[in-house]
Specification:
This protein starts with a strand and ends in a 5-residue tail after the last strand. It has two domains: 97 residues, Formyl transferase, N-terminal domain (Rossmann fold, 3-Layer(aba) Sandwich), CATH 3.40.50; 109 residues, Formyl transferase, N-terminal domain (Rossmann fold). The protein has seven helices and ten strands. By secondary structure, it is an alpha/beta fold. The chain binds glycinamide ribonucleotide. The site of glycinamide ribonucleotide (GAR) has 13 residues, from α1, β5 and α6.
Length: 212
């Protein structure tokens, strides 16, 4: 797999981290479901092809996902990185891209799926929070985990402060996971993530910044 597409809905800082990482392969397209996504301009300025598939123009999730799949096919991308893409994808779409559809989520899954993860972490009183890169399966935020990074929850943290601490780690582990997949070292096999060669180095599976 050498061509990839990045799907965004807004700011696109994870998209920037992926593109800045100079991954093997080519970013064939940055696709947004929102025409006003800030990340589109950033990508266009760097000569990356961009496209918009505006979800508001479709009567159903199925129709939107069909148009999205068409845009991905047209770009020539074989692998898809969801980077702050805030649409729930239908099961046929997810099945079509099994093992080729990757997401980053701002929590240590399976804790805190869905939205408002930093608020939920603060509310629950956990001492450790973080982010997860995973393959996408039909159940939301439940797919096989590729890499996670943990950060401390500090006394007095606001959701914004915690989000910023987590986001810095997202920008490290998403390119790390993407590189593993693009280089063929990481893949999905029988519903589990398999890293080629020796056992996955601990630093690849879990990043703990305080130890570094
Ligand atoms: C990131 O924190 C990402 O993990 C999260 O949205 C943010 C997008 O920021 N994704 C989700 O919540 C997906 N359910 P970005 O546009 O700057 O990459």
């Amino acid at each position: 797999m050498s061509n990839y597409a990045i799907l965004i809905s807004g700011r696109g800082s994870n998209m920037q981290a992926l593109i800045d990482a100079r991954l093997p392969g080519r970013c064939a397209a940055v696709i947004s479901n929102r025409p006003d996504a800030a990340g589109l301009a950033w990508a266009a300025q760097r000569g990356v092809p961009t496209a918009v598939v505006d979800h508001k123009g479709f009567a159903s999730r199925e129709a939107f996902d069909t148009a999205l799949a068409r845009a991905i096919e047209q770009s020539g991308a074989e692998l898809i990185f969801l980077a702050g893409f805030m649409r729930v994808l239908t099961e046929p779409f997810v099945q079509r891209y099994t093992g080729r559809l990757v997401n980053i989520h701002p929590s240590l899954l399976p804790a805190f799926p869905g939205l408002h993860t930093h608020e939920a972490a603060l509310q629950s009183g956990v001492r450790v929070h973080g982010c997860t890169v995973h393959f996408v399966t039909p159940t939301l935020d439940c797919g096989p985990i590729i890499v996670q990074a943990a950060v401390p929850v500090l006394p007095g943290d606001s959701a914004a402060a915690l989000a910023a601490r987590v986001l810095a780690q997202e920008h490290i582990i998403y390119p790390q996971a993407a590189r593993g997949i693009l280089e063929g070292r990481c893949r999905l096999k029988a519903g589990r993530v398999v890293w080629a060669g020796d056992a996955t180095p601990a630093t690849l599976a879990l990043r703990v910044p305080a130890r570094e």
